[in-house]
Amino acid sequence: MKAFAVFALLAVAGADLAPRYGYVQPSYGYAPSVAYAEPSYAPVRVAYAEPSYDEAPVYAFNYAVADDYSGANFQAGENRDGYATSGSYSVVLPDGRTQTVTYKVADAYSGYVADVSYSGEAKYAPVAYKAAPAYHAAPAYQAAPAYEVEQVYEPLPVYQSEA
Question: Which domain holds residue 74?
Answer without folding.
Answer: 58-119
